[in-house]
Amino acid sequence: MSDNQTSDAGDATVPPANSQPIETPARPDPGAPESSPAKVPRWRRYLIRGLKILAFVVIFWLLSAYVLLPALWRHYEHQPGLENAPKTTLTSQGIPGDPLNVGLIGAEKELLHAMLGSGWDPADPVTLRTSLRIAGSVLRDRPYPDAPVSNLFLFGRKQDLAFEQPVGNSASHRHHVRFWKTKEVGRDGAPLWLGSATYDRSVGLSHLTGQITHHIGPDIDAERGGLMADLRKAGWLTELFQVTGVGATLLGRNGGGDRYYTDGELTVGVLAAEGDKNTKFARLENPVAIQIKQQLWSAMRPLLQSLPAQ
Length: 310
Known about the structure:
Transmembrane segments: 53-73
Keywords: Membrane, Transmembrane, Transmembrane helix
Protein name: LssY C-terminal domain-containing protein
Domain LssY-like C-terminal: 83-266
Structural class: alpha+beta
Region (Disordered): 1-38
């Protein structure tokens, strides 16, 4: 048979088919070692694992500190109307001032009698004369037991009442408290007064505005407790309870830039009427979650007290 083939029609020549071998995939050599992925260095594995753990801890802390615990540590069972009340005063510049940490339930007459009868003096109003007098008290170390206190604001107005207890001769050191009458009432229909009790430790320039002001001591819980202890000792309280105030705060700053710390509770005292003084007294317990928080805070308090006031 010739290399050239004739088609069935007899007039065309078909070239011979070009035969080529079909390529087949190479089979792996059973004896050859298998290739393995590159190993991750041990330090990198530890680093990745550590970052995952850190991320978990941060997420858990955020949920606990800002969602779970604040929800557990808020309570208004003894005075529900305070849940939506302000928690901090304001300066005349609108800067957050001293936190609210005390409250008294009673008529204005009862409040005046109770404070005066517990060793607290009413503060003079701020005038040019009283401003010059307090300046002389500070500069010359002279007593001024009724020295004025600077104005702070709540509900759009300055304090309705203010009281103080001198410490030493100069008006630069004193315990003092401001009160605002609220629309809230106690169980007996008497008005509730919200207040801010702090200790003036010195006179200086505001860290925020540069104005002359008193600098407060950081432990505002001690001032809260001191005021209520004075009222209780004098027999002017019939009941004592707490609600949530500004909330637990480690590094707070007031309107003068002074540092403060607090467990965040607002202590409310029910005042006795004139004829009921020294007759009865009851302390209402906090919820269990609040009691646990208070124990934790008490354990931290010595550390906070060791820090500088600034």
